[in-house]
Specification:
The complex is a heterodimer of chains A (194) and B (150).
Chain A lengths: L8 E7 L6 H8 L8 E3 L4 H4 L2 E3 L3 E6 L5 E6 L7 H8 L4 E7 L5 H11 L1 H6 L2 E6 L10 H9 L6 E3 L5 H21 L10
Parallel strand pairs in A: 1-5, 1-6, 6-7, 7-8
Antiparallel strand pairs in A: 2-3, 4-5
Chain B lengths: L23 H17 L3 E7 L5 E6 L5 H21 L7 E6 L2 E10 L2 E10 L4 H20 L2
The chains are: A alpha/beta (194), B alpha+beta (150).
C-alpha cells in the first residue's frame, strides 16, 4: 500500500458494540503480541463476558511491500465515546464488527454507523458480522436497508473474529475501497497484499 | 486521513444493567472513606472510586462535573497505565500522577480479588502533593478493606 508523502505506517480502527469480537479480531491477525486493556465486566452486556476493553487494543500487521498497518480497537460502550474520538484521529478507515446473533444487532450497527459517520464519510468502512452461525435465519436485509438510508455503500461480510483469513478479508475489502477513493482523487495507489 | 476534527457522538444511551455492582452499604462506606480523605487534606476538589469497567462507585466533588465520562476515562487511564508499564518491563502500575498548571490528579489502583477499581483524586495547585499521596495511599488501602466485605 502506498499513499505517498513518505508514510509507511497506517492506522485502522476496529469498533463495534461490546462482545462483537474486536479484541479477538485484532489478536487473530496481529503479528505482534497485542496490547490489551481489559477489565472485569460488571454489566450483563456483551453476552455476559467476563472482561471488557476499557482502553484500547493495539496490534500491527505488515503489508506485502514493507508497509505496516497499525490496528486500534476501541471500547464498545458509549461511556467511552471520548476515547472513540481520540482513537479516530489519523485513522485511514474503520472496521465495524457487530454480533449478528444479538437481537439488537441492526440497531447496534446503526448506532456505530451514526457515531462514526464522519470517519466513514472521510475515509472508508466495512461491516463484519460475527456469530452468524448462531442466527442462520436472521435476515441480512435490514443491514443493507440501514446503510442505504444513510447513503453509505459499505461491504457487509460474515466473519469469524477468530479467523485470521476472515479478518484479513475484511481488511482487503477496506483497502480496496481506500484504493478506489484514492484513485478517484488521483492521489496515489494501493499496492500492498495482506 | 482523518484529522481528528470529526465529532464522535453516541446517538443513544445503551448502557446495560449492572450485574456485579457493589452493595449500597459498601458504596456508602466508600463515600465515608472519601469524605475522610477530603477532610484530611486541603485542596482536594474531587474524589471518586470507579469500577474496573468505568462506572462510578462513590463520588465527592465541589464542582459540577460529567461524572460518568470522567469515571470511564479514569478506568481507561488505569488500564492503559497498567499495559504501558508492563510493556516497558515494569510491573503493573500502582499510581498515576498527572500534573497541570491548575493542579494535579492522582489515579490509584485499588485491586480487590483480581478486580482493579480506580481511586481518582483531583487537587488544586495549593494542595501539597506529598500529603495528598500519603493520605490517598492510606485511603486506597481502607477502600480495599471496605470493598472486600461485599
Amino acid at each position: 500500500m502506498s499513499f505517498g508523502g513518505g508514510q509507511n505506517e497506517y492506522k485502522l480502527l476496529f469498533t463495534g458494540p461490546m462482545g462483537a469480537g474486536k479484541t479477538t479480531a485484532i489478536r487473530a491477525i496481529s503479528e505482534i503480541e497485542p496490547v490489551r486493556t481489559e477489565a472485569a465486566n460488571t454489566t450483563a452486556g456483551g453476552g455476559g463476558k467476563a472482561t471488557t476493553t476499557v482502553g484500547l487494543d493495539y496490534g500491527e500487521i505488515s503489508l506485502g511491500n514493507g508497509e505496516r498497518l497499525r490496528l486500534y480497537g476501541t471500547p464498545g460502550q458509549d461511556r467511552f465515546s471520548a476515547l472513540w474520538e481520540i482513537l479516530t484521529t489519523g485513522a485511514m478507515g474503520v472496521v465495524i464488527l457487530v454480533d449478528h446473533s444479538d437481537p439488537e444487532s441492526y440497531e447496534r450497527m446503526e448506532h456505530f454507523l451514526d457515531s462514526f459517520a464522519g470517519l466513514i464519510t472521510e475515509t472508508a468502512g466495512v461491516i463484519g458480522l460475527t456469530h452468524t452461525e448462531d442466527a442462520p435465519d436472521r435476515p441480512m436485509d435490514p443491514y443493507y436497508e440501514s446503510l442505504a438510508q444513510r447513503y453509505m455503500m459499505l461491504p457487509v461480510m460474515p466473519v469469524d473474529a477468530r479467523s485470521s483469513e476472515d479478518i484479513r478479508g475484511l481488511l482487503d475489502a477496506l483497502l480496496s475501497i481506500l484504493e478506489s477513493r484514492l484513485a478517484d482523487s488521483s492521489v496515489d495507489s494501493l499496492s500492498g497484499d495482506l | 486521513m482523518n484529522n481528528g476534527a470529526t465529532t464522535m457522538t453516541p446517538r443513544k444511551s445503551a448502557e446495560t444493567n449492572r450485574v456485579l455492582d457493589l452493595p449500597e452499604a459498601v458504596k456508602k462506606s466508600c463515600v465515608t472513606k472519601l469524605k475522610e480523605l477530603r477532610e484530611a487534606v486541603g485542596g482536594i476538589s474531587t474524589i471518586g472510586l470507579v469500577s474496573p469497567d468505568g462506572f462510578e462507585v462513590a463520588w465527592i466533588s465541589t464542582a459540577t462535573l460529567p461524572v460518568s465520562k470522567i469515571s470511564a476515562l479514569a478506568s481507561t487511564l488505569v488500564a492503559v497505565a497498567h499495559s504501558y508499564t508492563k510493556e516497558v518491563g515494569l510491573s503493573e502500575c500502582r499510581e498515576l500522577i498527572i500534573d497541570t498548571d491548575l493542579g494535579c490528579s492522582l489515579l490509584m489502583d485499588v485491586t480487590v480479588d483480581g478486580r482493579t477499581y480506580g481511586l481518582l483524586i483531583a487537587a488544586e495547585d495549593t494542595a501539597l502533593l506529598g500529603r495528598v499521596l500519603s493520605k490517598a495511599r492510606a485511603c486506597a488501602k481502607e477502600l480495599k478493606d471496605v470493598i472486600a466485605t461485599r
